[in-house]
Amino acid sequence: MASPDSVVFLESYYEPMAANLARTRLEAAGIPCFLSNENLVSLMPLYSPITGGVRLHVRQRDAEAALEILGNVPVPPATGPDEASFAADAPDPVAPRCPRCGSSDVAYGPATRNTYGLWSALLSVVLRYPVRGKRHHCFHCGNEFK
Questions:
Q1: How far is CA 3 from CA 8, 27, 32, 60, 105, in A?
Q2: Which of 68, 45, 72 is nearest to 58 (CA)?
Q3: Do residues 13 and 22 touch, judged by C-beta distance below 8 A?
Q4: pTM: predicted TM-score of the whole model, two decimal places
Q5: Sign of the CA dihedral 109, 111, 115, 121?
Q6: What Pfam families does the database record attribute to this sequence (predicted)?
């Protein structure tokens, strides 16, 4: 029979951030714990499934309380609706809008389609790496624009 002070494996996480959040929750509750494989998975994420991910360990006597704490996911309190966000005639002046559909569901980043100019095409051939410009992308209709 294992002693209550022996260390046991409690949970496995494939992302180091999730493992650190669980470790922090347990330490905030007064349960000592530690992580293993964290550095290996952080440096080489493809090894995570092979090594079993980042492993969380606790003492045998704290295992049940730790599982209960990790099982309770706190739900953030709901906030009241913002009246200005429901006004149809008051669009956000800062957010860009899609010129095709008018949606504000737009992000700025690397272009998803080939938007090569002469110099970027030439540079892409020389570097053997696609050099794409940054553009706005509408997630509603798929339009890309500057």
A1: 11, 21, 16, 7, 56
A2: 68
A3: yes
A4: 0.50
A5: positive
A6: DUF2007
DSSP track, 9-37: EEEEESSHHHHHHHHHHHHHTT--EEEES
Integer Cα distance of 58 and 13 in angstroms: 15
Q: Residue 10: what are its φ and ψ, rounded to 5°? A: -105, -50
Which alpha helices (DSSP H) does 90-146 contain, by range?
118-127
* CB neighbourhood size of 25 (10 A): 17
**Exposed/middle/buried for 41, CB within 10 Å: 0-12, 13-18, 19+?**
buried
Residue-wise pLDDT for 57-105, tens only, equals: 999 999 999 999 998 876 555 554 544 444 444 455 567 888 888 887 7
Angle at 110 between CA 105 and CA 114, to 5 degrees: 110
